[in-house]
Predict the 3D structure of the following.
Amino acid sequence: MKIYGDSNSGNCLKVKWVCDKLAVPYQWIEIDTRKGETRTPHFLKMNGAGQVPTVAFDDGRTLAQSNAIIRYLGRDSVLIPRDAFAAAKMDEWLFWEQYSHEPYIAVCRFLIVYLGKSASELDPEKVKRGYAALDRMEQHLASSRFFAGEAVSLADVSLLAYTRVAHEGGFDLGRYAAIRRWIGEAEAFLGLPPAR
């Protein structure tokens, strides 16, 4: 299996983390999206949307979209709750992450880290929506150890990717004690060093 990914992308790292945790063998192929490497004819044949991560399986099939990939790779593992309702709650958080979290937390980080913008140049609406996402996470984690119950699931992997580096996008995690506790526990579970 080949993972085409950008190691600076949280969406790509999710796939790597799941493979590493579950000991799924893979070959990582580094893709530089800013150099147009997702726009080559070879890449577009694998993924017409021209996005990473993209996984190419040995039988020629490909799969895109980080949460779809980790959902597939994590099937029948400890990362998906056995209880059907708990698994559905995990999916609820996976969908929410891509719609209500990543477009704000990750985009603000991209603008600061990769485009050199200052925090004062960020779209105030994106910042507001990013903090709204963090507020919702904090509220949930104040009464639940992880996102789909008392064990790490794919929901935690997905949300961890950009939350652990939210400060790089100008977000102050100082007031989020439950999120900081959760980041540490999820990083330890996945064998990750603490985010800088």
In short: The chain has a mean pLDDT of 97. The longest helix spans residues 84-113.
